[in-house]
Amino acid sequence: MQLRHSLSDFFLSFGIAFYFGCLAIPAQAAEDEQEVQAESEWSPGDPVPPGYTVKVDHTARRTGAIILVASYGVALLEAASGSSGCMMGDCNQSSKVPLLLTIPVVGPWIAFPSASDDQKMGCLLTGIGQGIGAAVLAYSIAFPNYELVKISKDVSVLPVPLATGGVGVVGRF
């Protein structure tokens, strides 16, 4: 008899929680639809809707900086591995290539004509990488990407059934 009573309490609690949960879902869906509408209609220069703030998206800046630094790092490693000839006073045209690679962005392109066949591919790849990284970084600084971000101050509380019987409350703050 006790088991039957607790099962009926459980199903009653579950039914109540399910009912209130179903009532809360359409309200949440309507809020989500309003958020999407506010975000899709906003463009930089428009007034910021209430409950939102504007932030700069730094993804392109980070990407450009990572590409630039990585390809410049490869060029520095290439320069460090081939710089022994010029440091000892034996500076012919192909031994100046490692020193030129230490110049960011333009160094690989200056070094390319005087590079040996082994060094040309390294100059080409590091020059392309540094150029792309610098271009993405410069573009993202000159034309920042603004995004509309919702300020989250919502509080929602939903009833849920407890395994031991009864109703509990779950909330989001």
Q: How would you sum up this structure, described in words?
A:
By secondary structure, the chain is of the alpha+beta class. The chain folds into two domains: 2-51 and 151-172; 59-142. The protein has helices spanning 2-41, 59-81, 84-87, 97-100, 107-111, 117-142, and strands spanning 52-57, 145-150, 156-161, 167-172. It has a two-stranded antiparallel ribbon with strand order 1-2. Helix 2 packs antiparallel against helix 6. The two termini are 40 Å apart.
- Integer average pLDDT: 75
> Which stretches of 5+ consecutive residues score pLDDT under 50?
84-91
Q: How many separate domains?
A: 2
Sheet with the most strands: spatial strand order: 1-2
Instruction: Supply Rg.
Output: 31 Å
Number of strands: 4
Q: Structural class per helix/strand content?
A: alpha+beta
Give the % helix.
55-70%
Question: How is the secondary structure organized here?
Answer:
Blueprint: H1 2-41, E1 52-57, H2 59-81, H3 84-87, H4 97-100, H5 107-111, H6 117-142, E2 145-150, E3 156-161, E4 167-172
Antiparallel strand pairs: 1-2, 3-4
Helix pairs in contact: 2-6
Question: Main traits of this protein?
Answer:
173 residues, alpha+beta, 2 domains, two-stranded antiparallel sheet, two-stranded antiparallel ribbon, 6 helices, elongated
Brief write-up:
Helix content is 59%, strand content 14%. The chain has 173 residues and is α+β, with helices and mostly antiparallel strands. The chain has two domains: 72 residues; 84 residues.
